[in-house]
Structure formats: structure tokens, C-alpha cells
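Journal club prep — side note

Before the paper discussion, L.F. wants everyone to see what a predicted structure for a comparable chain looks like in C-alpha cell form. Sequence:
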Amino acid sequence: MQLSAQQELRVLHVDDDPSITDLTQTFLEREDDRFAVRTATSADEGLQLLAESEIDCIVSDYQMPGINGIEFLESVAEDHPDLPFILYTGKGSEEIAGEAIRAGVTDYLQKESGTDHYALLANRIIHAVNSQRREQRIQFFETLESELTELSIDFLRMEGRDIDTLIDRTLERLGTLVSADRAYVFDIENETETLSNTYEWCSDGVEPQIDRLQGISQDVLPWWTQKLNDFENITIPDVSELPPEAEAEQELLEEQNIASLIVTPMISDGELVGFIGFDWVEKQEVWSDEFINILRMVGELITTARRRKERRQELKEFETIIGALTDAVYVLDEEGRFTYVNDEFVELVGYDRERILGSSPLLIKDDEEAKQAKQQLGRILSSDGPKTITFETTIRPSTGDPVICEDHMGVLPYDGEEFNGSVGTLRDVTDQKRRAQELEKLKSQYETLVESFPDGAVFLIDTDLEYVRAGGEELGKLGLSPEEVEGTKPQALFPEEIADETCHYYEEALDGNANTFKQEHEGERYRVQTAPVRTNGEEIEYVIAVSQNVSERVADKRELERQNERLEEFASIVSHDLRNPLRVAHGRLELIREEYESEHTDDLAQALDRMNALIEDLLTLAREGKQVDETKPVELAIVAENSWQTVNTAQATLEIDTSGVIRADQSRLRQLFENLYRNAVEHGGDDVTVSVGAMDDGFYVADTGPGIPASNREDVFEAGYSTSDEGTGFGLRIVAQVVDAHGWEVIVTETEQGGARFEITGVELVD
């Protein structure tokens, strides 16, 4: 279900600047002719177009009048939760990126000047749609395989008089699942060389054809008949493109308003006895072999079941169908001995098939587990018992540890009082059980955290919103003790407004949502974090809450905010009011180049690129603070690799020789890597090799370029310093700013080959 070479990709682009939407549409559709772009200049207009049209992906600006991009995403998600949504914005910041991620955005991409980023946008759109379609394909096949499993057991247990009803229900279930317009079964009468429609299901609005499709001579459909006689599947994505030798078939299909179809032969004892088919009134994509094989298995189920209608067959008639299941399958006779096991069962238990067949379940179970299975079988055989039953059992393979399995058991069809045996599947759930135990251990670790958290007050709350544990140094500063907290509710500890707000976030956590919020209590400000604690698999049983006094931080932050207000105002003007016209100028320049030749266009493009680079670096220097407040463990290699993907590195090569973990602000660390990479390519050429490696107290980034003279190494981190006509002089200044913000140090040396080597030290390493 990935995009095919011809499949249209329907994109909705929403931006309040029509010049941006027009330009983006032009370059996207030029980048890939599969793109069909619709545009809107507001979120409200975008929602209206979405309601009227089939859309594969939404691309939206952030800063728009009325509803911004995040609010637009939330509105879209209400009715289209799986629709890919890319935030494509000129206003970039860590705050916006974080808000977008929390809102569930598929991708986040910042607009850039020039036209190269349109190729990146196109790739991001294709990747997002492909990812969604892969997930849909996985879910589709899981559902289809589950349906096949249930049908297999239904057919095994079906009495002969009910088979016709089951076949009708099977066509309806499978036809609906694959979105067909018609599903049917045809019988072939070899003596008269005719075929007749015997079972049919039609979707709403589709006219049945069963009455007029009786006693059709095989000579009328020579191409069709030959393929079926050769036991071939017939797959026609587009009836209008049938070969000339299928002219008769094409005429008949078009009379029935059929645009595409799948037909698979039904074979019994090596003889063609009929076929099962699925029709669509619209053209379809090419179907996968996996999809066609599953539909063919349905035909085999029906074929086998119809033979049982005439006479009861032994279980070997169903072995092909059972063998198609992905779980371990077993069949026991009326005496409780194995008569059939599939390959998955043999692999699960570790014994040879010859050793298993004829043995009792005591080969793989102890007495208690075998006794439990007999009790479950007795429940099925009781007059008011279930048709099938699922229970947990433990088996002992020939080698290795015991395996916990989920046993789905039913009985074989039988007449009167004659019991013929049982059939079931085993699914290994050992890892699932182990994960549940690990989560129980995690609960214990949280409780230990409550007792030993060194900075702040820590609370553990149950599903009744009642405190069960409390601790931490800050607890006493709140005037509370663990004894008076435990067993009480927030209403007994805090004023009404604080208690109500606290309970709200506890309930959010019990719904699976972590939150961070601020509170004021007795003149002090607190930062509170809440998160769910999952135990017993995925069940949420507790909430963990950490409260920290941030009064001093808030005062410092307010002072800093006052200092930065004017700077942020300037940055916003540059970001929104200057860069949009610059982007339009870039786009129009590309269009002018296609219509006119002039020696001035290259100089103009270079000047525009220079202006854009200066704006980007100035914004980075202006918006990023000088201090990092919070750091987290990050894998150095992953950040280095991800940063490489976001930089235009041409033919350059990245080599990473580290698996270390450091404490850092990941976003700022990416800025450091990105600017060092750009510096290497700018001075070392398109084929430069960049290396990232670990040091005892930090890491380095080196390249194979010409290096930096010793006399200039102290100056390279100054704003505006550059030895390249293409450089802005701010890239290494940004590197120095990131280093200072973390409290690290950076020096410039040279490699053995004479290239530049930047060494960042004073870094906190994580074991």
C-alpha cells in the first residue's frame, strides 16, 4: 500500500499567504507529477475542503489569523486521527516544535529560502503517506488473518445443514473487509462444461447478478476458462486493459459494470470445481500476492466445507487451511492424542513431529496443566458451554525454559453423541507476561523514589485520587509529613482551588496523559509534574507527582523575559515579515530563469541566499538563551546522525565512532552538530569526510578539510568572522553559544591529516 508510480497523492496546503501556497503548489507538482495540491488561506477554509475532498496529507503553516497550525491539527484529528499532518512553518522554535509533537503532528519542517527545500518537503510528504499506508496495510492483514482464523474454526465446527448460511456470511464478511462491491462463488459442471453462480453477496446499491449467471457455457469465456483450468489466479486491476484474447470476457464484465476483480480457482482432488471472486466497480491498485493467497485460502475453506456437506471428511481435508495459520495448531482425537500438528507447533515444543503424533499432551505438560485442559474441554462439551474457549497454559519444550501460552480451543464437528476430538491454537505469551512482571518491578522502583527523592516533594496517588505514599525534602517545607499525607485526598491538604486543579491533572494521568503545571501556595510558586504508572501489562494503577519550589527560578525568569521581550519582537518581525517576501523572491527568481537568460540572475540568487543565511543565523543567536536549564541523557551517535540528515551535505561522508551517552539539551546539541557540519562542507568541499568520536570528558568533530591556521583559531568563534564568501560568520559563534550554555569548553586543533578538529570538553557522561 505504498505510493505507486502512477498513484495520485492529494495534498491540502494551508497558509495565510497566497503567494506561499501558489509557489509551494507550483514546485511540489513540478517535483513529482503524482502531487495534486489544493490550497487554503485559513484553517476554516482548510477544514471545509477536507470535508468535501479526499486528502492524503495536510501541510500547514503555524502562524495564521484566527486558528493557528496546532489548533488546526487538533480540529483535523477529531475526525481524521490517522491523516498525516506536516507543520510547515516559517516561525521555528523549540517551543513550537515541542507543542507540535505533543499535539501529535506527523512531521515538523521549517520553511527555508531558495527552492531546494521543496524537494525535502515532497520527500517528507511521501514518507508520511507511505508510513500511514504501511500501518494501514499491517492492520488490514492482521484483521484479514484473524478473520481467516475464525472462519477456519467456524468451518471445522459447522454442521452440514448450516454450511450454505456460513458461505453466505463468509462472502459478506470478506467482501465488506476488502471493500468489494460483489463477492461470489461459481460452480463448474465438467460434464456439461458449464458454470453457474451459486452464492452471491452485493454491497449496498449494487445490483445482484446471480439469476442471470446460470448455465453459462465455458466456450463463451475461453481465456477465463483456460486460466482457471491451469489453476491460475485471475487478477484484473483494470478491465479496460484486458488483452485482445479476452475480448469476450471484457464485454461481459463491462455489461455488469465491473472495473476490476480477483478470481481464484476452487480445486478438489486435483480437479477444478469452481471459483470464488471479488468485484469492484472502480479500478484498483495491483494486489499483493499475500492478499491474493489469503482470498484463495477462503476458496479452499469453502471447497472443503461443501465436500463435508455431502459426507463427513477426516481432518486431513483441513490441514492445508490450518497450516496457513501463523499460530501453533494442534488436533487431538477423542482419546486425547495428537493426530495433527503444524510446523509452528513443532518449532514451539521442540520435538520431532513423529514423536508428537500419537502422544498425549503429557509429553509437553505436567499433570496439573493437562488436567486444566481437560476441564476446559468439558466446559465446551457441556450443553450450555461455549463453542470455543481461551485459557492460559504452560508447556515444557524439549529444551529450554517453560513457555506460557494462550490456548484457543474448540471441538471437531461430530454427529449425535459421537465426539471426534478437539482442535486448538497455542500462542506464546511468555514475553507479554515477563513485561507485566517488569512493570510490577517498576512500581516498586517508583515507591522507592517516593522515599528517597532528594529535591522536591514526591507523591504516589491511587485510582481513587488518594495519596498512598509521600516523601522528599520539600515535603516538610510544605508543612506536611508523610503520615498526614498518606491515606488522604488533596481536598484535605490544600485550598479548594489548588485541590481541584491537582485532582484534574491526577485524572489526566489516570487517562494516560503526563502533564507539567504551575501552582502558587502560601506565596511560593511550584512546578508540578504528573505521570501515569503502568503495572500489570499496560494497566494504569497509580499516578506519580513531583512538586518542586521554583520561586527563585520564576523571579530570574521574569527578569530575563523582560530583557528578551524586545529581542523576541525583533526576531518575530524578521521571521514572519521579512522571510516571506524573501521566499517569494527566491521562487519568482526560479520562474524568471525558466523564461529569460540573464547574467544578473546568478548574482541575484547569491545575494538572496546570503540574506537568508544571515537572517537564519541572526535568529538563532537572538532566540537561543545563554543557559541550558534542563538536560537529559542523549545518545551522542543518534543526535549526530539525525543532525546530518537535516544539513545539505552534498557528497560529504559522516563517520561516527561512539556509542556514548551524555547529558545535554538535545535541540541545542543538534544546533552544534549542524553548524559544525556546515562549516566542514563550506571549507572542505562537497566530498569532505566528517568524523564524530568520544573523548574522556567529551567528544570531538573533525573533518578532512584544509584546517584552521593556529593564528586564527581564537577568532573563529567571534560573530561575523568568516574566511568564505558564502559564510555568514555566525555558524561557529552559534557553536560557542551552545557550548557556553551547557557549561562546556571548546577548542580548535588539527587532525593528523591537517583538517580542523573541534574538541568539546567538560561534558557530563552517563554510564
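L.F.'s comment for the group: Residues 328-428 form a domain with the Beta-Lactamase fold (CATH 3.30.450.20). Keep this in mind when we get to the figures.
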